[in-house]
Amino acid sequence: MNDKAALVSLATSVPPHLFHQKQILEAASKLLADRYPQFETMSSLFANTGIRHRYGVKPMEWYLERRGWPERTRAFLEGAEALFVDVARKALAQADLSAGDIDTVVTVCSTGIATPTLEARVAGQLGFRSDVSRVPVFGLGCAGGVSGLSIASRLAQARPGTNVLLVALELCTLAVRHDELTKANVVAASLFGDGAAAAILRAGDGGATRIEAAGEKQWPDTLDIMGWSVDPEGFGVIFQRTIPDFVRDNIGPAVTEILSRMALSASDINRFVCHPGGTKVILALERALSLDQGTLDHEREVIADYGNMSSPTVLFVLERARAHGLPSRSLLTALGPGFTASCVALRHAA
Using one digit for the tens of pLDDT, what is the confidence trace for 160-204? Predict the structure, then answer.
């Protein structure tokens, strides 16, 4: 019996409100142009992201009003619970399981605060058992999809035969700010959307795609590259525009280092499945990983259709890669606050 955790199912979901990139630019201009003179020169960002449209948990009018913590939190709880239930049900249906078959739930989210945590709030609605193990994970940001898969796979491997449900869910749009007249805030407004992904993992008899190995690398003195500041109005984005340069200069050696700890090399990888932070990050990844420009095609499609949804985004890419047929070995990669690279190697038996 193979003790590696296998990917039994993978599903994605988005909230109901669809925003075209042109609509978001018009709204951002209405909010910021008069108060932030640099906005006009930065507005080209919205056209250069490669994003066609994104999804939000609230209608456009909601974002045009200034919001504080209580309203943001109410919107987060309402929207996140609905999205959690929807994506979990999809993953359960794919796996031909019920919520009562789930032994462990790993919830990855960095865009809202909930105590009790989301999986507890939806337990009754979904039908989780009273003895289900709950593992909420906060603060991994864009790396959360890959790191969450790593955590879930190790939990599945520790108890072969049990079913582990991973839900990576982010409502990035709720962090939109009217008061922060900064480049970082405009960049964030041009990129981020809402979405969720869910996967079920099981060791022993799970299926053809197995989590072979996982690894991370955190760079010293990089805490200021990406993250949240916390103030009376809500989360404020910490977002350095040098991220594509950092990726180009650092991700190649980091992936080589992580692969070597897995007893693998780049030549063993048939397909990279990457978190697409944006068009410039995708280009930087292709260069850093010595890939031909255009290789990361699913990544470009996901960013065009959904924007950057933080942690679940890479699982949207994996969903497309699975639909097209996974090769024998893939490497999932994502970068997030820390500043950290997270990788998971998948082994697929055709």
Answer: 999 999 999 999 999 987 777 677 777 788 889 999 999 999 998
Q: Is the pTM of this model over 0.90?
A: yes
SS3 of 294-347: the string is CCCHHHHHHHHHHCECCCCHHHHHHHHHHHHCCCCEEEEEEEECCCEEEEEEEE
Q: Are 74 and 68 in contact (CB under 8 A)?
A: no
Q: Is pLDDT at 240 greater than 90 in this prediction?
A: no
Q: Which residues contact 231 (CB under 8 A, 6 or more apart)?
A: none
Q: Could you report the per-residue pLDDT of 244-265, keeping only the tens digit for each? A: 899 999 999 999 999 999 999 9
Q: Got the DSSP string for 171-226?
A: EGGGG--SS--SHHHHHHHHHB-EEEEEEEEEEES--SEEEEEEEEEE-TT-TTSE
Q: Are 91 and 164 in contact (CB under 8 A)?
A: no
Element (H, E) at 138: none
Q: Cite the active site residues.
A: 142
Cα separation, 349 vs 8, in Å, equals 13
Sign of torsion over alpha carbons 231, 235, 241, 242: positive
Q: Is the pLDDT of residue 47 over 50?
A: yes
